[in-house]
């Protein structure tokens, strides 16, 4: 346990760069390990979640090394070429690592055992097992589809077509990764588009992936199986989900003006920035460019008097990990912020809906919890603070309430800041470099 105290800070100023994108980093390691040749990755997030993926790839027979200049080099095994690991794969705290790997392992003709920490072992895996079974794989899990699990991969995979019942890039990616090693075409239909890093990066590695928009705003993704993936260099952009914390911190801490450089601006990831602008947040995108196929911009952010808004459910997939920190921004805004379509928050590292509501209440905020919505009422004055927050193995809860404490009247205490290392190593030092008072 690493307790953290966050105190009212004077204006945040300066320029920072947050670490690499977590979603893209996992995929770069996995796809590099399935490609033929040597893949070089720059800007990889060296957070615990991604390091679990690196360790899993090594256990499956790929070579994954970090060079002195910070580049990661992966020597891949080909799409169906992994070897049976001798031990249990430990995916730590990472839902993305576990679920994407279940897709990869579904078509490897051996049995893999997989586990994770207490948070990951409480998260639903049936959502991935259900579409994968018709491909030919079988699973043994704890009750209710919880990890640890055993994955008995098939040597004769069948391609499938699957319509996602929830907007989940992890489920979409698991099906696509299983389809990679099946003959013929695998199709995933998503009613509401989720992050498209798997589609983009598989194309980058030479796979045939077609994406069609439907009349109703959904997407049909078709992958042609059994391509030879060819090693490619990957430049990982910085993570908009990590940029979210300094951005909200600057918006709510009076007098602040900061620049967050080279933020990944994939349109399926930027729902939070759109929402904060609607609330009156002064966020300017400068130097907008395309870096290695992903959109990137420098964000200049100034303290702003925010106003409450209604955030529609349709926006949830593009900001699914950002609701905890949006709820913090809403606590310093004038009026009511109504967030809808939040059912997926209940199955993240913690039940983020319940934990955010409980933590906001501990900090004196007027908040209402519904089955799939949250309403925050605030006056626009500095929120009270003073709460003692339990981070519950959830990095985003820890960082969100550290940000809260920077602008609240009383300090906020977090019982354990160590989960932050899963996605944002160096977070506290980076924030303190801007003038934050976090100890
Ligand atoms: O595919 C990904 O990289 C991710 C997808 C999202 O999860 P779901 O697929 O469960 O929505 C997100 O919450 C997670 O942080 C990363
Ligand atoms: C939900 C998250 O990640 P994962 O599902 O990979 O654990 C997150 O980073 O907020």
Itemize the secondary structure elements and their pairings.
Layout: E1 4-7, E2 13-16, H1 22-34, E3 38-42, H2 48-59, E4 63-66, E5 72-75, E6 89-90, H3 95-105, E7 111-115, H4 126-132, E8 138-142, E9 146-152, E10 161-163, H5 169-180, E11 185-190, H6 197-204, E12 209-213, E13 219-224, E14 234-235, H7 240-252, E15 257-264, H8 271-278, E16 282-291, E17 294-302, E18 310-311, H9 323-331, E19 334-340, H10 352-362, E20 366-369, E21 373-379, E22 388-389, H11 395-407, E23 412-414, H12 427-433, E24 437-438
Parallel strand pairs: 2-15, 3-14, 6-7, 10-11, 18-19, 22-23
Antiparallel strand pairs: 1-23, 1-24, 3-5, 4-5, 7-9, 8-9, 11-13, 12-13, 15-17, 16-17, 19-21, 20-21
Helix pairs in contact: 1-2, 1-6, 3-5, 4-5, 7-9, 7-11, 9-10, 9-11
In terms of DSSP E residues, the strand content is 25-35%
CATH class of the largest domain: Alpha Beta
For the sheet with most strands, the description reads: 4 strands, mixed
CATH superfamily of the largest domain: Enolpyruvate transferase domain
Number of helices: 12
Structural class: alpha/beta
Bound molecules: shikimate-3-phosphate, phosphoenolpyruvate
Overview of the molecule:
This protein has 439 residues and is an alpha/beta fold. The chain has 2 domains: 4-20 and 237-438, UDP-n-acetylglucosamine1-carboxyvinyl-transferase, Chain (Alpha-beta prism), CATH 3.65.10; 22-235, Enolpyruvate transferase domain (UDP-n-acetylglucosamine1-carboxyvinyl-transferase, Chain). The protein is built from 12 helices and 24 strands. The chain has helices at residues 22-34, 48-59, 95-105, 126-132, 169-180, 197-204, 240-252, 271-278, 323-331, 352-362, 395-407, 427-433; strands at 4-7, 13-16, 38-42, 63-66, 72-75, 89-90, 111-115, 138-142, 146-152, 161-163, 185-190, 209-213, 219-224, 234-235, 257-264, 282-291, 294-302, 310-311, 334-340, 366-369, 373-379, 388-389, 412-414, 437-438. The strands form 6 sheets. It has a 4-stranded mixed β-sheet. Strand 16 (282-291) and strand 17 (294-302) form a beta hairpin. Helix 1 packs parallel to helix 2, helix 4 (126-132) runs parallel beside helix 5 (169-180) and helix 9 (323-331) packs parallel to helix 11. The model has no long low-confidence stretch (mean pLDDT 97). Residues 22, 94-96, 321, 348-349, 396, 423 line the site of phosphoenolpyruvate (PEP).
């Amino acid at each position: 346990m690493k307790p953290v105290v966050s105190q009212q800070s004077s204006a945040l100023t300066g320029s920072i760069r947050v670490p690499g994108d977590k979603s893209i980093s996992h995929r770069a390691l996995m796809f590099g390990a399935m490609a033929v040749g040597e893949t070089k990755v720059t800007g990889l997030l060296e957070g615990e979640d991604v390091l679990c993926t690196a360790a899993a790839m090594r256990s499956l027979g790929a070579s994954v090394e970090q060079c002195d200049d910070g580049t990661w080099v992966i020597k891949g095994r080909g799409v169906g070429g992994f070897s049976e690991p001798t031990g249990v794969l430990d995916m730590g705290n990472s839902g993305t690592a576990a679920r994407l790997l279940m897709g990869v392992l579904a078509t490897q003709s051996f049995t893999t055992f997989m586990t994770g920490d207490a948070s990951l072992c409480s998260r639903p895996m049936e959502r991935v097992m259900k579409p994968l079974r018709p491909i030919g794989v079988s699973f043994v899990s704890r009750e209710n589809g919880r990890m640890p699990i055993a994955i008995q991969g098939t040597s004769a995979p069948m391609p499938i077509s699957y319509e996602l019942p929830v907007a989940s890039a992890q489920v979409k990616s698991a099906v696509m990764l299983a389809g990679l090693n099946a003959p013929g075409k695998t199709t995933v239909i998503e009613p509401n588009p989720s992050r498209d890093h798997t589609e983009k990066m598989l194309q980058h590695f030479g796979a045939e992936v077609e994406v069609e928009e439907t009349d109703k705003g959904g997407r049909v993704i078709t992958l042609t199986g059994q391509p030879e993936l060819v090693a490619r260099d990957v430049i990982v952009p910085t993570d908009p989900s990590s940029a979210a914390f300094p951005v909200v911190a600057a918006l709510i801490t009076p007098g602040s003006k900061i620049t967050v450089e080279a933020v990944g601006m994939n349109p399926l990831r930027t729902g939070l920035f759109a929402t904060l602008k609607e609330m009156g947040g002064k966020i300017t995108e400068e130097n907008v460019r395309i870096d290695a196929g992903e959109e990137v911009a420098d964000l200049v952010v100034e303290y702003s008097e925010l106003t409450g808004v209604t955030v529609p459910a349709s926006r949830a997939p593009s900001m699914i990990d950002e609701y905890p920190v949006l709820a913090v921004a809403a606590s310093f805004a004038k009026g009511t912020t109504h967030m809808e379509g939040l059912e997926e928050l209940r199955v993240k590292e913690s039940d983020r809906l319940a934990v955010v509501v409980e933590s906001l209440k501990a900090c004196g905020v007027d908040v209402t919890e519904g089955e799939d919505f949250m309403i925050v009422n605030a006056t626009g004055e500095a929120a009270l603070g003073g709460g003692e927050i339990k981070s519950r193995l959830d990095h985003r809860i820890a960082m969100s309430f550290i940000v809260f404490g920077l602008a609240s009247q009383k300090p906020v205490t977090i019982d354990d800041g160590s989960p932050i290392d899963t996605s944002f190593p160096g977070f506290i030092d980076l924030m303190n470099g801007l003038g934050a008072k976090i100890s």
